[in-house]
Amino acid sequence: MKAAVSTAVVIVCVAAQSVQAAPGWERQLDMKAMAEAARTIGELFAGKRPYSQQALKAAAEAIMARAGVNLTDAFAGEAQQDSKADFGAIASSTEDFDKLARNLEIYAAALSTAADRSPARLGPETRMGGTLLGSPFAPKAEAARDAAVVPAEHVYHLMLQTCTTCHAKFRRP
């Protein structure tokens, strides 16, 4: 009887440790899923992958599902040794981190909408052209404003810029 109780206690302790470790693994899997989704979108725009409305929509939705408050919540926990996240920087600049997470969600939503509008191909209206945004003389990008008015390909680049900015500020080398 004592052996059964001891075994049960060990199982409960191991399970509790696994549950505590899960957010770190989930966070890493989510970041990898977003990177893969961004790669898919980039390949669609670059012509390295045949255009598929479903592929663009699924990739945008994958990012959108992990961005915004979901991304903020994923990094609200304690630092873990195997994480490259700089939890100290995130904690001291939560407003900046939250804004980047929201911007990522806005850009992903705009790409999802672009997929809805582009059932057969990425037409000229989805491509970057003569827009000032993205040039060195452009006003600072503002996700809520720009995602709705710039071509989807440019939204993709703004989304990548958001990822790069977040990694530069909140990721350890």
Please specify the SSE layout and strand pairing:
Blueprint: H1 2-46, H2 53-66, H3 69-74, H4 87-92, H5 94-117, H6 143-146, H7 152-170
Helix pairs in contact: 1-2, 2-5, 5-7
Describe the structure.
By secondary structure, the chain is mostly helical. The protein has one domain: Four Helix Bundle (Hemerythrin (Met), subunit A), CATH 1.20.120. It contains seven helices and no strands. It has helices at about 1-45, 55-65, 70-75, 85-90, 95-115, 145, 150-170. α1 (about 1-45) packs across α2 (about 55-65), α2 (about 55-65) runs antiparallel to α5 and α5 packs antiparallel against α7. The radius of gyration is 20 Å and the shape is elongated. Residues about 1-20 and about 130-135 have low confidence and may be disordered.
Sheet having the most strands: none
SSE ordering: HHHHHHH
Helix content: 55-70%
CATH class: Mainly Alpha
CATH architecture descriptor: Up-down Bundle
**What proportion strand?**
under 5%
Radius of gyration: 20 Å
Which outline best applies? elongated
Mean pLDDT: 81
- The name CATH uses for the topology is Four Helix Bundle (Hemerythrin (Met), subunit A)
Number of domains: 1
| End-to-end CA span | 51 Å
Number of helices: 7
Structural category is mainly alpha
Q: Uncertain spans, ≥5 residues at pLDDT below 50?
A: 1-22, 131-137
Q: Could you give the count of β-strands?
A: 0
